[in-house]
Amino acid sequence: MLLQALPFIKTKFPEVQLLVPGLLGSREYSSLTGNAYFRYLKQLMNTLQLDAHVTFLGKLDGTGVAAQLEKAHVFALPSFMENSSNALGEAQVIGTPSVVTPCGGTQDLVTHEHNGLISRRGDAYEMALQICRIFSSDELAAELSDKARHFGHSFHSPELIR
Description:
Order of helices and strands: HEHHEHEHEHEHHH
Oligomer: single chain
Strand order of the largest sheet: 3-4-5
Radius of gyration: 16 Å
Mean pLDDT: 90
Low-confidence stretches: none
Strand content: 5-15%
Number of helices: 9
Structural class: mainly alpha
Number of strands: 5
């Protein structure tokens, strides 16, 4: 869905970059899956002319994830099915403004317009609009960041989880 949202975003923000952490596109991933899904994504990227706007980061350790989240302008989670997303929790603790879809436990972690933005599931255009809202407003980004960080530190506190 982010690949489908990216053409809308790049019309307003032509330098936009989608950074994808994880095994996708790595040699490890290729040997595990035969690379069919990655080939599909590359074909979609080619069709949508996104090759220059998507970077596969490979496997990151905790420090690498934190560094990427600190640099990111937005964390996007366009899930169709989700439990309680650890990745979203990490973004909140760092204070990265988030755009998510309402599914599973995500709805317990994000309150729309408070500590993140919510986009309809499967709606790439709305996902793009919500991401562009954050890119367009430093004030909104800062407010979402502060509230996400506060929520993240309280909800994901090691003392509360024990």
